[in-house]
């Protein structure tokens, strides 16, 4: 093989390896880090729960891809529907065994996860009920499209948080405004 053919072969190999790395990175977003079974022991708010595994490991879990209205914290008042979102999540999960599909670990060292109650995607149910918005800034495939569709349907039907119309304030905007 001459030098020209060798360089072209090397470039093709580099392109193939780069493509494989990109595919592997994309695939890592599609699959969970780990899946565990746990019993929900406490509902902190509409998008955060505490759970314990059968081995006794305590987990703090932030529901992936959703953002629920804030509940009151100390002197900071909660948002409209904050307590409703927490109570709705409690009605779905309190003391129940769930499958925790861990997608990430956040800056507060919480597991960021999809919670499955049998075949029911609890995160999706919170959005569909109008108890949380789809957190588009963090959503990735395969959940991005179905979560955004569920939000649009809940919004069109004026469910929960969407019944506020133009006075609705996103939880992320509320947190910035009140300094949370």
How does this model look, in words?
- The protein has helices at 3-30, 82-93, 122-128, 144-156, 171-178, and strands at 34-45, 48-52, 58-63, 66-67, 97-105, 111-117, 120-121, 133-134.
- It has two domains: 1-30; 34-178, OB fold (Dihydrolipoamide Acetyltransferase, E2P) (Beta Barrel), CATH 2.40.50.90.
- By secondary structure, it is α+β, with helices and mostly antiparallel strands.
- Helices cover 38% and strands 25% of the residues.
- Strand 2 and strand 3 (58-63) form a beta hairpin.
- The protein is built from five helices and eight strands.
Provide tags for this entry:
globular, 5-stranded mixed β-barrel, 5 helices, alpha+beta, 180 residues
CATH architecture of the largest domain: Beta Barrel
Termini separation: 64 Å
Which structural category do the helix and sheet elements fall into? alpha+beta
Residue-averaged pLDDT = 88
- Along the chain, the helix and strand elements come as HEEEEHEEEHEHH
The stretches of 5 or more residues where confidence is low (pLDDT under 50) are 13-28
Q: Report the biggest beta sheet as strand number plus sense, adding barrel if it closes.
A: 5 strands, mixed, barrel
Q: Which percent range describes the beta-strand content?
A: 25-35%
> Looking at the structure, what is the overall shape?
globular
Q: Helical content, roughly? A: 25-40%
